[in-house]
Write a structure and sequence with these properties.
The chain is about 45% helix and about 15% strand. By secondary structure, it is α/β, with parallel strands linked by helices. It has a six-stranded parallel beta sheet with strand order 1-2-3-4-5-6. It is globular.
Length: about 150
C-alpha cells in the first residue's frame, strides 16, 4: 500500500470472540514482519478491542465509534479506559478541534466514511492521519491537493 496501512476492521458480532482473535494472531504470525507492520486493526467492540491488544500488542489498534451504535458517551469512556493507539470516528464526530486534541494526546486519527473530496481535504488539513473511503482515487487526489507545497 505504498507506505500506507491496511486497516482490518474486526467485527464484534461473531458468536465467540476468542476464535476470531486466535485466527488473527495466527494469520499475522505467518506474515513477514514487513506485512505485519503494515497492518492496523480496528473495532467498535470494547471487549474485542481489549482481547486484540492483549493478543497482538505490537499491532496498532484503533477504536471505531459512530453516532448510531457506539454513542458518544460510550466512545468517550472507551477512549479513556481502553487507551487505543488510534481513534476512528465517523466523520460527523470529527470536528477540527477534536482531531487536534486527539492527536495532542498521542492517538492517530482515521476518519470514516468520507467520499466527498472537499470534506477529505478539510480533514487532512485538520490533521487526520487517514481517511476511510469508498472513493480512494478522488480522495487521494483531494488530500494531495490540500497539502501545502
Amino acid at each position: 500500500a505504498r507506505g500506507g496501512l491496511v486497516n482490518v476492521e474486526v467485527k464484534g458480532d461473531a458468536p465467540e470472540r476468542e476464535p476470531v482473535v486466535r485466527a488473527l494472531h495466527t494469520l499475522l504470525a505467518r506474515r513477514p514482519p514487513r506485512a505485519r507492520d503494515a497492518c492496523l486493526l480496528s473495532t467498535f467492540d470494547p471487549l474485542l478491542f481489549v482481547m486484540l491488544r492483549r493478543a497482538l500488542p505490537a499491532t496498532p489498534c484503533g477504536f471505531l465509534f459512530d453516532t448510531d451504535n457506539t454513542r458518544p458517551i460510550r466512545a468517550r469512556f472507551a477512549r479513556v479506559a481502553l487507551r487505543p493507539h488510534g481513534l476512528h470516528p465517523e466523520h460527523v464526530l470529527a470536528p477540527d478541534r477534536a482531531i487536534r486534541r486527539w492527536r495532542r494526546r498521542g492517538a492517530f486519527v482515521n476518519v470514516w466514511t468520507v467520499d466527498g473530496p472537499d470534506r477529505a481535504a478539510a480533514l487532512a488539513r485538520a490533521g487526520a492521519d487517514g481517511i476511510i473511503t469508498n472513493e480512494p482515487g478522488a480522495i487521494l487526489a483531494a488530500v494531495a491537493g490540500s497539502q501545502a507545497p
